[in-house]
Amino acid sequence: MSARELAKDQPASFAFNAEYLERAKKVIAKYPAGRQASAVIPLLDFAQRQEGWVTRPAIEAIAKMLDMAAIRVLEVATFYTMFNLAPVGKTHIQVCTSLSCAVRGAGDVLKTCKDKLGIDAGDVTADKAFSLIEVECSGACVNAPVVQIGDDYYEDVDPASMAKLIDAFKRGETPKYGSMIGRDGSAPAGEPITLTEDPTKPIPKQDLAAAKAAFEKAKAEAAAKAAAPKA
Amino acid sequence: MPKLTVDGIAVEVPPNATILQAAEQAGVEIPRFCYHERLSIAGNCRMCLVDVEKSPKPVASCAMPAAEGMVVHTRSDRANKARAGVMEFLLINHPLDCPICDQGGECDLQDQAMAYGADRGRFHENKRAVKDKDLGPLVATTMTRCIHCTRCVRFATEVAGVPELGAVARGENMEITNYLGQMLSSELSGNVVDLCPVGALTNKPYAFGGRPWELRKTESIDVMDAVGTNIRVDAREQRVMRVLPRIHEDVNEEWLADKSRQACDGLSNQRLDRPYVRKNGKLTEATWQEAFAAVTAKVRGLPGAKVAAIAGDLCDAESMFALKELMTALGSTNIDCRQDGAALDARNRASYIFNTSIAGIEQADAILIIGSNPRTEAPILNARIRKRYLKGGLQVGVIGPQVDLTYKAKNLGNDAGIVSQIASGSHEFANVLKNAKKPMLIVGQGALARADGAQILAAAKQIADSCGLIKDGWNGFNVLHTAAARVGGLDLGFVPGNGGKDVRGILDGASKGEIEVVYLLGADEIDSAKLGKAFVIYQGHHGDRGAHRADVILPGAAYTEKDGLYVNTEGRVQAALRAVFPPGDAREDWTIIRALSESLGKALPFDNLAQLRARLRDAAPTFATVDKVQPAAWGAFGTAGQVNATPFEYPVKNYYMTDPISRASRTMARCTEAFVMGGAQKTGTDG
């Protein structure tokens, strides 16, 4: 893999629409004068939300807005893989294939996506409805495997639930995010196996004398075993 | 002032010094790739790791401030092991192509791998490969060799002021690149080659030209602009292979402008290597005797008033002095070294030198630039202004066409009348200068080489007097020259004597027939059509404009081929040394004039360079001290009068071609095509 590059086909121009321009101004106002460059990541994000991806005119427009060199904006845009440098589909599927997800079966999930959509990772479907990429750790390892679609995390995904998700998106629905196997957040799947006692009851008193007797007995047995002649 | 010990040596360092600087003070060398004393600290190569007692990990000495009581070990096992580890990682992706790499023999990575590298690698996967970038005609790239020290990025952003380089992507995919294929549009771009610690950025015109150990190195002075950059001329046999900067803190620090570095291939093209005499309208090859005979036949018996001499922009002081003596012997006072007709007043030294000095720019807090574009006229000096600008609190005002100077400058308008307004105090910038602690102004040749140049000079002096530019220990009046020979010529008085004609008068006289003989000492920037029917003797090194018009050509030496004194715009006398011999029958310039004087029966009273220089020192005492700036006394100069309210024009139209050497250079032609014509001239028949 070589450095991420801007897409070959670029639109002619870029301008924030009224909503994002308003938000951009608010973000820029957070920083002291002369430090507007700090707003570069939010602005790139706004540009991506508006256009679907970060275009070259957008990079240059943001550079101009923040009074920084275009190469500085390009550095940021290429550093973070979350910025799409080429057009993506309406439904952008990001399958995490880092370690935790990989051992929990992310490979199969990815294969399901490829088979169902008929595209490879990094591609966009012909109707521009779906795009699929592999990403590094999404930061939700405890619910692995994780698939990010849009801004939502779909967790505990397996090939079957992945197929269902894709079908739902194909129908134009937006399925509920979160665990696909019904876990509550990152709580354990199924029944709790630790801390099962009722926390409202007092802690049972320990019989220290009995414990001490058991310890002494074990000690004596060990000593006797050590002293016995080797068989 | 923290005190610490480095390898057992106790040192006391200034506050804010780093461990690496403390080690340098202690005389301990620490290997480094990304750290450079003239750039900001990046701390990303990790080669400078040292062991600090009570620190759990080795620390990067370039970025760690030295603290009281630190005990630093730079040669401990842990430090050595840490560096060996860094080196192993660097070599994972660095190709082993040293035999075909131009950096070989002067490569930091090569040298430091000798000290810290393992004898084999443990990395069995594929090495990465990176696409090369096009940085223009001066810098060749082999980006696979890059170790991401980011020195070039920091140089372009900080010193050159053209933030066009950057590091895109991350991790193993990180690449140093220019913005989407843009060329590096700086007059200082060649310096990234010197800064690059590996062979990723190399000198494109010099590619595969030679190995450092084959080259003969001569310390010399550059003449492509009036800064007097200290250079090292690397030659092999009788050919100048490349030019590198030398460190001189008060002049060029360690930078070198692109034209000075890369125009050296022009020294091998279009050379005048034998005398020529015009016979039947055609220049034909001749011997020295024939050439001298032709001159003698014409000049002997001619009254001095009918003879004139013009000195060019690249002349050494010795040859100008010898020519002046010869003209005096011939009874002529028609001599001038101001080809562009600039209204410089040779009687008052303070009126034509850069009084503040180049290093003094760093103390200024307000600068008024009149009719000068320092970025093209003196890129090194412009970098110094930018250095001052980056410290903050500098106000710059420019009178002249709008240009990008690489720092924020307020364009006051392009109208010479503004100079008078500031002088009379009616313009707001007068208050900026008055309120500044150390204000300075820079007058360029674009302002002085006009018909009303003397009036502008007087107005500039009035600004200096009325706005407090002249104080105890501070002289803020500066003239920025474009010609390396100019200050030297003025210092030794190569200007019209009593009743003598200046350049305009000489050309006028020649076209009217009043002047019958014109001696051009490397003078190519005059309008040779105005020489009329005069008999033209051209002494110089390139077949350029002057030689085309000449009736007799006396082949001289270029700046790398003679020992000579040059005076930079500050008035600093510097000695250049001969790196190679002049080609063919060409000779050092002062010897030609000495030999001609004999032929004319007016033998000059010196037989060697030492005698000539002794006479020169007697005539112009400022030449007695080499590499020292002699402060000039403030006095009256300029001609008060009306300044025409017309726009200025900058003297340098094409930075890459300003003199016979750069006009003969293929590299400079490529630069002109790439940067000045913007590649827009390409037609379907190109390439």
Secondary structure category of chain B: alpha/beta
Largest interface: A-B, 14 and 18 residues
How much of the polypeptide of chain A forms β-strand, as a percent range? 5-15%
Radius of gyration of chain B: 27 Å
The dominant shape of chain A is elongated
Order of helices and strands of chain A: HHHHEHHEEEHEH
Q: How much of the polypeptide of chain B forms β-strand, as a percent range?
A: 15-25%
**What shape does the CA trace of chain B take?**
globular
Characterize the quaternary organization of these chains. Answer: heterodimer
The CATH homologous superfamily name of the domain at 91-179 in chain A equals: Glutaredoxin
CATH topology of the domain at 91-179 in chain A: Glutaredoxin
Report on the biggest sheet of chain B. 7 strands, mixed
Mean pLDDT of chain B: 94
- Name of the CATH architecture of the domain at 91-179 in chain A: 3-Layer(aba) Sandwich
Biggest sheet: strand arrangement of chain A: 2-1-3-4-5
Structural class per helix/strand content of chain A? alpha/beta
